[in-house]
């Protein structure tokens, strides 16, 4: 009789532990999707209005991102959709999720390392052009290019951290 009670108690504890782990998994999934939504909201600043009406923004964008706006937006939309699908999976595939995120990182790489975002040397021949590029970017996105850059980096790092946490947690589960 005592053995049955002990087995029952153990199975109840195991069940409670599994339920707790499942609750944590749900929270981690929600966190990863919230962080993804922060990234998506930031990138939507690039879509505020019709870019064809803003030739100065098109030039600034091309200078910062080394590509045209239309191509970038189409690719970004596809890449964000791929990442969102990965993060929405009940069971996270860490390798696939990290790959989807890395594609987005590569897409922003030229912007993140752009010379225009480095401190402006007032004696440089391109100083006034760099200021104009930054101004046009801000006018369009309502966000300083440097702050946009820092926000994008922070969001991508947070998503990567969420992916690692979820994958680790799912291994326990």
Describe this structure as you would to a colleague.
It is a single chain. The protein has 173 residues and is mainly alpha-helical. Helices cover 78% and strands 0% of the residues. It contains 6 helices and no strands. Helix 1 runs antiparallel to helix 6 and helix 4 packs antiparallel against helix 6. The mean pLDDT is 85.
Give a quick set of tags describing it.
single chain, 173 residues, mainly alpha
SSE layout and pairing:
Elements: H1 2-43, H2 55-65, H3 69-88, H4 94-112, H5 127-141, H6 145-172
CA-atom Rg in angstroms: 23 Å
Gross morphology is elongated
Q: Supply the number of helical segments.
A: 6
Biggest sheet: strands, sense, closure?
Answer: none
Oligomer: single chain
How many domains, in number, for the residues? 1
In angstroms, what separates the terminal alpha carbons?
31 Å
Count of β-strands = 0
The ordered string of helix (H) and strand (E) elements is HHHHHH
* Arithmetic mean pLDDT: 85
Percent of residues in β-strands: under 5%
SSE class:
mainly alpha
Question: How much helical structure, as a percent, in the residues?
Answer: over 70%
- Low-pLDDT ranges: none
